[in-house]
Amino acid sequence: MKFTESRLEQAIIELLGAQGYPYTPDTDIARSEDEGLIEENLRKYLSEKYQHEKLTGNEVYQVILKLKSYATSSLI
Which residues are CB-contacts of 57 (< 8 A; sequence separation ≥ 6)? Predict the structure, then answer.
């Protein structure tokens, strides 16, 4: 049996699912085709995750701006 990108993706989905991370198919996510980050979701996540550290809206914006500045190949 050949190990393909599709099999790797499925293995990762199952591994993360076993750890409690939900899977959402890309077709169910409202975003444009050229949008690599779902900014609103990331903004909300960062704000909630780091609220005990009093992360400001500007700091969240800076994190997102930094992530957007990376070339796609660097993220992969």
Answer: 47
Number of domains in the chain: 1
Dist. CA 39–CA 29, nearest whole Å: 12
Q: Is 5 exposed, middle or buried (0-12, 13-18, 19+ CB in 10 A)?
A: exposed
Ordered per-residue pLDDT tens for the chain, 76 residues: 788 988 999 999 999 999 999 898 878 877 777 777 788 889 999 999 999 999 999 999 999 999 888 776 655 5
**What is the extent of the structural domain holding 43?**
5-75
